[in-house]
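We modelled the chain as a single entity of 301 amino acids. Its sequence is:
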Amino acid sequence: MSIKINTDLDYLLIRLNIPPTRAEQYQDKTIEEILDSEAAAGNQAAIKMAADMFTDVNQLIELFQLADPENKLAILGAMTESQLDKLVPMLETKDLLEGLNFFTQASLLDMLKDIPKEEMLKAVFQMFSEQQIIEYMPEKELDKLLTGVDMDKDKLLEALQYIPEMYLQQVVESITGEEAQGSSHELVKQIGQFGDLDYKNALMNLQPTQKRQLTFILTNQENKLYEKFDTDAYTHIINRERDKDETVKGMSVIKPEYLEKMIKQLPQDLLSVVITQIDTEKFADSLINKFPELLAKFVAG
């Protein structure tokens, strides 16, 4: 277990005030061996560095060149899955989104199904306008919403008055079998007086365009109604209308805690690559305070 320390060695020699005449003997030595040798020779700088090795974030960053992603990756590659998971919450949202690009579109959509629906809907509204959602929603989903037992009938009948009279006449005629007469208000009242089965059939007999208009009016009045549509319907729309890049961008509004859970599903080697984006000071601090045993192994070479 080791990482490149070509220029780290230069930094170490300077910090320990080791003259060029002695520098050559340390070319193949580990950090620990150099510190031990110098400390035994009475080098006070070596004694202090050995004491500070596991407490000084800035010193650790310089010594291991932690700003270099390759050096970060070498250390991350030595970590266990559980250790890597502890670092994920330290990533910024932009880093988490970058990591989502490692997944396929199908995997992203599967993961969207696994988060709370309100979080998934935040992403949907980021990708589509409300009008587009209703336009793309399968008609069977509209039928299910409009005829659902928890749909407020009074609100629906009120919204139904905005549908052109000719279409209201058609749905009344589809139930009664007789020519429908009257104003929009009268026709809506008649629909409201149908028995439960006829009432539902009347709504389902609306022309698709009018059905979407009615649904749009209702969902605009109460956004919670969007939660009534099946999750699969949303993911199908996303898959058909948006590519992976657009999907990832849309997921930017999801709470980080759910993005973190997604990222943790990456294979360990890819997860390590994503975590190289972690803030260098946070990474160094974690090595000191969370993983001192791992750090000690790298110091020992």
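As a brief sanity check on the tokenised model: The chain has 23 helices and no strands. Confidence is low (pLDDT under 50) at residues 1-7.
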